[in-house]
Amino acid sequence: MTTHKGPNKWTLGVGLALAVAVGLVLLFLLTQATDNSDLYERYYGALVGLNIAAASVLGLVIVWLLARLWRRWRDGKFGSQLLLKLVTIFSLVGLVPGLLIYVVSYQFVTRSIESWFDVRVEGALSAGLNLGRNTLDILSNDLGARTLAAAADLSSQQVDVYTLQLERLREQLRASDVAVLTPTGQVLASAGASQFSLGLGSQRPSSLKLQTAKQGGVTTWIDGLDEGNDTLGPAPGAAATKAYIRAIAWLSPNAVALKDESRYLQVSVPLSSTLVADALAVQQANREYQERALARDGLRSMYIGTLTLALFLTVFGAVLVAALLGNQLAKPLLLLAAGVRDVAKGDLTPKLIMDTRDELGGLTRSFADMTQQLADARGAVQRSVTQLDAARASLQTILDNLTAGVMVLDTAGHIQSINPSAQRILGVALAGQLGQPLAAVAGLQGWADDVGQQFARLRADHATTGQSHWQHSYELQANAHDLQHDTITLLARGALLPGLGQLLVFDDISDLVSAQRAKAWADVARRLAHEIKNPLTPIQLSAERLSMKLDGKLQPTEQALVSKSVNTIVAQVEAMKRLVNEFRDYARLPAAVLRPLDINAVVRDILGLYETALVPVQFEPQDALPLIEADDQQLHQVIHNLVQNAQDASLSNQAQRAPLVTLRTRLNDEGDRVRLQVLDTGTGFTDAILKRAFEPYVTTKAKGTGLGLAVVKKIADEHGAQVHLKNRTETHQGQDAVAGGQVSVSFPVV
User: Fold this and answer.
1) String of b and e for 209-241 (b: at least 16 CB within 10 Å)?
2) What is the SS3 assignment for 487?
3) What is the spatial distance between Cα 50 and Cα 682, in angstroms, rounded to a whole number?
């Protein structure tokens, strides 16, 4: 198994971390935008640039991934459609919720910002601000009136008593400081905290205020609050310092005590800390409200821009993660699909596995293990098949080389398999009959029916008696190419195969039967030669002696009868001797001495003896025949016997056609045998003769012994030759008629 590395998890983690970090920065700035817009505005440009850069990088990566996916789909690579579906699904999963959140957030931000600037809120802030101002104005006017009254009382006093008067006045006005100032702002006398300082410091009034007090009699202002605008207070933090209401009244110079020199009375009254805090809060709230009211569109743009940037970042990140995760999910599936496709093609080589610990990785490992097991199993099966093929080949070799015919039939008698010997024995091309009923083979219908009955009887007996086979002998008509037998004797044996098949084994025992018959006749011939020949000579001698003893002693009539009887006895004894000698010759046929011979030369040599015969003999040789191995004397005997039999057969039918004997020599198509054919014009062979022509004492001639063909057959066996008898036919007036007999002897070539 080969390990396949998945996507780079470190790269994926870094990309996700960067996306999350940028998102967190956006979220932080979004939360700070309301309270600290300067911070947001300060970094807004950099943030936009950063987001654009990140979005560009993600976009390029996405375009690259999509381009690769499109090329895979265009090239028709396996798994591209699955990967495209996964990327689309993951992209929609990230895109649809992102768009939904964006739309909701957009509406929420828009409506929320608008709700911040409600008319009632603005009216409330304005009312609070006016309330503070009115309160301070009332306090200032009250202090100004009292200060003006105190200045009128103080104008009539001498400068020497200012200190006592100022102290009393401070207590009356509940002021923190009371002082008399010169036109230049110098302190002539004071009471309170300022009396311990060299001057008023920050409390010193400006010349404008002194001028205003001189013109109006009195002037007031708030000290400690922001006086640079129309608001009531400084920035937050200033409330920690005390605020005062200060009033300056002009001391009238008409008073004697002033001696035509202008003097000013300044009173400082501290404001309540609660009042100051409330005034500052209202002032600060109003300032912020006005600022935000003026920046309403900008604030909305900032929020929407932030949301848009976050949306783009989310969408690009979702598409990127979809591509990566889709590829990661598709990899194991593609590996499995490719593996299944290879397995379907028969390729069981080690498969790739995903180096992950999840279920898909485990699935690829399980598939690889299964493929390995299949490969091992196939290897075992192939080894078994190889062994089975070897065993089948060995069995087929054995069957092919068996001399017995082997045939497998199904229960319906259809041929399933055969060996070459079955075709050779039956003389039928059974290879083209596979799958056909045995009864459908021409010439084998009767045998097939009997075989079917034997198997049916065996099947019935097997269920009751347990019999496992049957055996029977049959005689079948030999095929036209069998030159040795006109009928064949089969010894068939049948057995039931597992799976309800039927095994039929048969062998051609025709040669064995012929050999047994020949041996039996040889034994008979020897016994006849022994039992009959011995008394023949005494019988002949006794008859001749009796004739000699009675010669001249009998009357002519009796003498003639005795002579006739003796002659008859002697003639019959001679006939018996000839018969016994023929049987003796058949039984004691000498062993053949084989040597190469030219069969055409042998036939021509014999034909010279039949030049003046009653039945003419003609020769039709084939030139350039190969030599055969034969015994010269025995070959002459075979040809003589066949020619004589043919002449006798032709004479028996001379009324139908002119008697004629024809000898032919031919080389067979295979070129391994030379065939001698002897044709006559007789009546042909009967069925009984065709079946038993080679047995001794089987003949159709009145004076024949029936040993001619038997001797021919025995000599042919000694030479390894084959003898075959058949009737020749000719068509006359549309009908086939027997034109004579034909005996063929086929000799193997050297």
Assistant:
1) bbebbbeebbbbbbbbbeeeeebbbbeeeebee
2) strand
3) 124
Please give the backbone phi and psi of residue 317, each rounded to the nearest 5 degrees, phi first.
-65, -40
Helices and strands of the chain, counted as H and E runs? 18, 19
Bridge-based pairing of strands 352-354 and 187-192 is unpaired
The structure's pTM equals 0.38
C-alpha closest to that of 47 among 60, 30, 59, 63: 30
CA quadruple 713, 718, 722, 727: dihedral, nearest 10: -20
The C-alpha atoms of residue 745 and residue 665 are separated, in whole angstroms, by: 10
Report which of 631, 614, 730, 616 is spatially closest to residue 663, judged by C-alpha positions: 616
Q: Which residues pair with 142 in a beta bridge?
A: none
How far is residue 193's CA from residue 170's CA, in Å, rounded to a whole number?
Answer: 11
Q: Which residues contact 194 (CB under 8 A, 6 or more apart)?
A: 177, 179, 187, 200, 203, 268
Smallest Cα–Cα separation from 151: which of 129, 173, 132, 135?
173
| Contact criterion met (CB below 8 Å) for 600 and 621 | yes
Mean pLDDT, each 10-residue run in order, the chain (750 residues): 51 61 62 55 65 71 77 74 73 76 76 63 76 85 87 75 79 86 83 57 74 86 62 43 84 56 84 79 76 64 70 69 68 74 76 68 76 82 84 78 84 86 81 84 85 85 79 73 61 82 84 67 65 73 81 80 84 73 62 88 89 90 93 89 88 79 93 93 80 62 62 84 86 74 92
Q: Are 351 and 367 in contact (CB under 8 A)?
A: yes
Which residues are registered as beta bridge partners of 596?
629
Determine phi and psi for 115, rounding to 5 degrees. -70, -20
**By 3-state DSSP, what share of the chain in percent is helix, strand and coil, each rounded to 5?**
60, 15, 25
Cα gap 662→610, rounded to integer Å:
12
- Give residues with Cβ within 8 angstroms of 461, minimum separation 6: 467
